Amino acid sequence: MQGSDIYRASNTSRTRSSTLWRNRTAREVFSNEREEDDEEALKWASLEKLPTYNRLRKGLLTTSRGVANEIDITELGFQDRQKLLDRLIKVAEEDNDKFLLKLRERIDRVGIDIPTIEVRFEHLNVEAEAYVGSRAMPTFINFATNLVENVLTFFHILPSKKKQVTILKNVGDEFQNSKHKGSIVTSTKNISGIIKPRRMTLLLGLPSSGKTTLLLALSGKLDPSLKVSGKVSYNGHEMNEFVPQRTAAYISQHDVHIGEMTVRETLTFSARCQGVGSRYDLLSELSRREKEAKIKPDVDIDVYMKATATGGHEASLVTDYVLKILGLDICADTIVGNEMLRGISGGQRKRVTTGEMLVGPTNALFMDEISTGLDSSTTFQIVNSLKQYVHILNGTALISLLQPAPETYELFDDIVLISDGEIVYQGPREHVLDFFEYVGFKCPERKAVADFLQEVTSKKDQEQYWARKEQPYRFITITEFVEAFQSFHVGRRMGDELATPFDKSLNHPAALTTNKYGISKKELLKANFSREYLLMKRNSFVYIFKLFQLTLVAIIEMTLFLRTKMHRESVYDGIVYSGALFLSVVMIMFNGMAEISMTIAKLPVYYKQRDNLFYPPWACAIPNWILKIPLSLLEVADWIILTYYVIGYDPNVCRFLKQYLVLFLTSQMASSLFRAIAAIGRNLIVANTFGSVALLAFFVLGGFVLSRTFEKQQATIIDESEGKTSNGIAQEVQLPRIESSTRVSTSSNSSNNGKKKGMVLPFEPHSITFDQIVYSVDMPQEMKNQGVVEDRLVLLKGVSGAFRPGVLTALMGVSEAGKTTLMDVLAGRKTSGYIDGSIKISGYSKKQETFARISGYCEQTDIHSPHMFIEEVMELVELNLLRNSLVGLAGVSGLSTEQRKRLTIAVELVANPSIIFMDEPTSGLDARAAAIVMRTVRNTVDTGRTVVCTIHQPSIDIFEAFDERGGQEIYVGPLGHRSRQLINYFESIDGVSKIKDGYNPSTWMLEVTTPAQELNLGVDFHEIYKNSDLYRRNKNLIAELGNPTPASKDLYFQTQYSQPFLVQCLACLWKQHWSYWRNPLSSSQDIFNAMGVAVLFIGIQNSASVQPVVAIERVVFYKERAARMYSALPYAIAQVMIELPYIFAQAVTYGVIVYAMIGFEWNVKKLFWYIFFMYFTFCYFTFYGMMAVAATPNHHIGSILAAAFYGIWNVFSGFVIPRTRMPVWWKWYCWVCPVSWTLYGLVASQFGDITHVMESEPISVQDFIRLYYGFKHDIIGVCAIMVSGFAVLFALIFAVAIKLFNFQKR
């Protein structure tokens, strides 16, 4: 059966429409059933006379009065584009197929063939090498061992210890869970199949079954380190005969975007880079044939096709079309946002990821879990739009979905079911159930077919579907399913098709792309320039802050070296003179160090776009460099204008300009160097380390710290002055298991007892009522600019309801309805905005301090410490197999999306709360994982707890429906058996269509209550609900539950937190210990740095490398503090204490090696002082870095703020200019500069008691350091107190900042 036949059979209305198109005359079709007026005909005739190039850039645009005016397509404005789209597609759900049919009708009318792509894969096999068992764990010891082993293996000295495994799945879990060393034995995966054009193909499979690997293999995006055998071909052509990255689009399940860009800007940039493909050639041929046949097309369709076929525009009509189809037009001008920058919702971000590739000209789509975070109604609409595109415009699509609703499942023509890296079934959707009945399994009634298909291959779920009752059940393995499919009639037909090679003569010349990039190099450069300039404007605060801090340091320097003429009478004057120059170079170079964090933040997006061949690397690098030149000119001008003449350099203007030029080039060199280091290091910790080492090399070898020819004594004294620190990691301290120290604590021991896993601890049930809740935020400036006069934007408009113990309540609504907003308000998680109304807990007014103790909140974003095990929380949501897995970073390492979601839920459930809020607990889960989660939640509710969920695709029998849209509820009430009460309520409203048999009630409810349906029916569902008996019953229930029962008491706890202070400290310390030990990139850098990097730069490196670690952990801390797991002080103490043993190991390693190599006196007392000062110097630098992050919104700003003080500390350390030569108004700062105390202690302890006369000067060493530096041996004890005191001070400020500041905006 052909795809077009299936398509027509599935949509009778579309069939009638298509028949009408074919039965009409050309005049009726292309005149839009209206007579052409003479003026429009004359204008069109004049357009026809133009040369082809000009004709394709001119069109007739109909105005609001119906008059057609000639316009230049390249100058189409925003309002014109919006009006054109509104005429073509008024409502995306209803008009998109009509619009696409018009496009197809125009193309078919002149006999042009649309290119098609058939993708074949034969005997596809993917292999990888990986460590097995304990060697797979990223501990510090493994990291060091692997590093040495890789070097020896490279030179063929040792054989590789990695094991080769065959995959079409993610085997990372097996690697980590294996307790022994040895290879993992798997069957050989030789999979074959065909993805056909004009057919929607659904890819189903359990997590880690190989879906993503298959999609990557078919789209040509597999990691080069994997070994791939077999063949993948497009229209008979193998991958090396064309450019697969531009012929096919792979849409990842990970949403990687630049948070500062708006949705429209993100899609527009993508459209510019991908170009128009073969659209221009198609339009050119189309126009030529229409001219020959004297056919006049629909003017709106003509303008649309011309606008989408001419590239190089900053604004694209195809971008506006995709925004409308994906429902993103309402947030098109909102920034995408990230974890610290509030932007669009998770569902919208997922659609941006999809739209980013849809704006391109590719004909083959490979889409990986595009429905995560979307409600079933939105998913249906998006998949339906894709189906219309595939069927009408001959596209090819393979789409992976986790939980497709029945109506979404019905949109697909073919099914590919994959399990354990092998294809169990591939063929028409209507035959898939027949195949499983052929094997012996049957799908029950009211069971979603997609859920059945994923569960029937699972060992845990298979038995319930066994249909041959006369035969005893036995587990049917994947291999047996595969063999059965090969003998099934669909499998035999597939084998026959694969045996017949594709006829290459049928390949359309425009089907496969051979050009590496979509547009010219010049246009790529222009697009990247535009984006980089936009990002610089959005990040202008960073650059202003850098300029401000540079100005501040320049003022310090000019007042420190203040004189009308630089003295040149002695060698010591020369040291001061060169010190001023050295300081200028140091500050200019340090100022560029912020490029590291800013570059690394953009790398994930760059890698994605580079791999998709959006642009070559140089097109991204050149704008980044050139656009920073004016900033460098400004910064250096600011520095040199303030300092040059005040310090007393030569007043000759030529020398002024020469110094300006040298410092400008130094600034450019430093910025470029740090960008290069960021690109090489890729990880912020590694890049900061390389950056510090690079700075050290420049400064130490620059001729100031060490002259090119020097004597031993000079080297000793000068090298002493450089000193500082590194980041820390703790040695393994065996702490007792603290079963109740945090919220991740309660009964894992009791989890095997009885049906209600982990939820058998005693608790007090509580109800929660809320009446007339209004939530508003300050009106965004963008909306004020558009003429909105109100001061506040209202997001929740008088919402009321009640949640009772033992009742599972679902907050239902389309995406962006306000579900998460309501939950945040009720749970007390909002950090901004205005809340009005009444919230009561068991009749008493809610107090957040006590409410947090009895409630749990599973957030939509899965935030966890990346290096933690999940050992305490496995049983509740069947995480046993992942017992020893690391959590990892989302989208980078560790647990998969669905595993992280289950962990998020388990973390809250084991805390034994009375009230639990869950924000989309099944988002990102496959059907089986969602069933596990909801089973656990159901058990929790059955114990009498109050549970509230926002949920996109709920199971019919486990939710109470609460639907609110735009902050207004439209139904609050019971679901009833088989959703009958909910269905009766909405079907009683005039005009609402009846639900079809087998249709998911939740999806039906969302579809019949959309704004478009309200408009069509002329009703307001909110007003209907407010006038119903159900509303009045709910108000009575709110009033009843809003009054406390006679014997009840208000919530009261003797302590703010559930555990005493000491237990909180131990728990946090235990967590930080494992987190650090399993972060080898952080811990190994400390030991590496200690082996030869001068003290100041080790200190800077410590400060810089600890900042990203603290920044990641701080996000977790915000969540856990809001849940009242522990207070800020235990967290801060643990974060500080975990650094101490690692810093000590670093200080001893550095101290012993350097002490011996420089040749200091081997004296126990002097060695002790040397290591003492090293240790506390490293400590205060590390704690200063932590403090900088805690006091700023993110580690980018924290690193810039810290860099300013590095330079100031360096100036006042007494090394660049001795304290004895400083002006009187700056000498005081030496006593508050921590580095000056370090230098004082180091020099005084090593040289302060040496009475030998120096060879170069007739003075003893003791007297020299007293006269020149002002250092006295008697003050060593004071130095020790001050250096250790600074470490304590910075640690205390870190603790206070963590406690007082919350930069997470909600």
Automatic annotation (TrEMBL):
<feature type="region of interest" description="Disordered">
    <location>
        <begin position="739"/>
        <end position="758"/>
    </location>
</feature>
<feature type="transmembrane region" description="Helical">
    <location>
        <begin position="1167"/>
        <end position="1191"/>
    </location>
</feature>
<keyword id="KW-0547">Nucleotide-binding</keyword>
<feature type="domain" description="ABC transporter">
    <location>
        <begin position="173"/>
        <end position="445"/>
    </location>
</feature>
<dbReference type="Pfam" id="PF19055">
    <property type="entry name" value="ABC2_membrane_7"/>
</dbReference>
<keyword id="KW-0812">Transmembrane</keyword>
<keyword id="KW-0677">Repeat</keyword>
<keyword id="KW-1133">Transmembrane helix</keyword>
<feature type="transmembrane region" description="Helical">
    <location>
        <begin position="684"/>
        <end position="706"/>
    </location>
</feature>
<dbReference type="InterPro" id="IPR034003">
    <property type="entry name" value="ABCG_PDR_2"/>
</dbReference>
<dbReference type="Pfam" id="PF01061">
    <property type="entry name" value="ABC2_membrane"/>
</dbReference>
<comment type="similarity">
    <text>Belongs to the ABC transporter superfamily. ABCG family. PDR (TC 3.A.1.205) subfamily.</text>
</comment>
<protein>
    <recommendedName>
        <fullName>ABC transporter domain-containing protein</fullName>
    </recommendedName>
</protein>
<dbReference type="Pfam" id="PF14510">
    <property type="entry name" value="ABC_trans_N"/>
</dbReference>
<feature type="transmembrane region" description="Helical">
    <location>
        <begin position="1275"/>
        <end position="1301"/>
    </location>
</feature>
<feature type="compositionally biased region" description="Low complexity">
    <location>
        <begin position="741"/>
        <end position="753"/>
    </location>
</feature>
<keyword id="KW-0067">ATP-binding</keyword>
<keyword id="KW-0472">Membrane</keyword>
<keyword id="KW-0813">Transport</keyword>
<dbReference type="GO" id="GO:0016887">
    <property type="term" value="F:ATP hydrolysis activity"/>
</dbReference>
<dbReference type="InterPro" id="IPR034001">
    <property type="entry name" value="ABCG_PDR_1"/>
</dbReference>
<dbReference type="InterPro" id="IPR027417">
    <property type="entry name" value="P-loop_NTPase"/>
</dbReference>
<feature type="transmembrane region" description="Helical">
    <location>
        <begin position="541"/>
        <end position="562"/>
    </location>
</feature>
<dbReference type="GO" id="GO:0005524">
    <property type="term" value="F:ATP binding"/>
</dbReference>
<feature type="transmembrane region" description="Helical">
    <location>
        <begin position="1228"/>
        <end position="1248"/>
    </location>
</feature>
<feature type="transmembrane region" description="Helical">
    <location>
        <begin position="625"/>
        <end position="647"/>
    </location>
</feature>
<feature type="transmembrane region" description="Helical">
    <location>
        <begin position="1197"/>
        <end position="1216"/>
    </location>
</feature>
<dbReference type="Pfam" id="PF00005">
    <property type="entry name" value="ABC_tran"/>
</dbReference>
<dbReference type="GO" id="GO:0140359">
    <property type="term" value="F:ABC-type transporter activity"/>
</dbReference>
<feature type="transmembrane region" description="Helical">
    <location>
        <begin position="1132"/>
        <end position="1155"/>
    </location>
</feature>
<feature type="transmembrane region" description="Helical">
    <location>
        <begin position="574"/>
        <end position="594"/>
    </location>
</feature>
<feature type="domain" description="ABC transporter">
    <location>
        <begin position="768"/>
        <end position="995"/>
    </location>
</feature>
<dbReference type="InterPro" id="IPR029481">
    <property type="entry name" value="ABC_trans_N"/>
</dbReference>
<dbReference type="InterPro" id="IPR003593">
    <property type="entry name" value="AAA+_ATPase"/>
</dbReference>
<dbReference type="InterPro" id="IPR013525">
    <property type="entry name" value="ABC2_TM"/>
</dbReference>
<dbReference type="InterPro" id="IPR043926">
    <property type="entry name" value="ABCG_dom"/>
</dbReference>
<dbReference type="GO" id="GO:0016020">
    <property type="term" value="C:membrane"/>
</dbReference>
<dbReference type="InterPro" id="IPR003439">
    <property type="entry name" value="ABC_transporter-like_ATP-bd"/>
</dbReference>
